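Re: weekly structure request thread

Next one in the queue (156 aa):
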Amino acid sequence: MFTTIANLLDVWRAESESTTRVLDALTDEALSYRAHERSRTAGELAWHIVTAVREIAKRTGLTIDGPTNETPLPATVEDISAAYQRAAASLRTAVEGSWFDGTLIVEDDVYGEQWPRGKTLFVLLCHEIHHRGQLTLLLREAGLQVPGVYGPSGDE
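Done, posted below.
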């Protein structure tokens, strides 16, 4: 759980940069790649990462400029990445503009439970990191280069 806005924003900056690198490693052709019949396509997974920023952050009262779960999946990687970058920047701006360290302990209803805002944004990051990891596997299976996230990848 985050306890300072500075720490939250430092981690958010680094993780959103990594997510952008992974999204940008996709190709338009690879968006339809599906590893298994019960799995999302690479495009659906990428779009889920994008829409989750607004979906989860809104539980804390933040207003995020980003697509909703109902927004159709764009046809291009460029549009998916641009939407993610807009949502990630919007979250950063919203937190910087309206929160202070004490805001992180304010509790909100998050899917039927009371969570401190610092926890909610930590869970948002964990969710993103989890699905970003899945996406790197889809990149590999689709024959694409995998960018480094926490150090160089085998391709680097």
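The mean pLDDT is 97. The two ends are 32 Å apart (CA to CA).
Next request, please.
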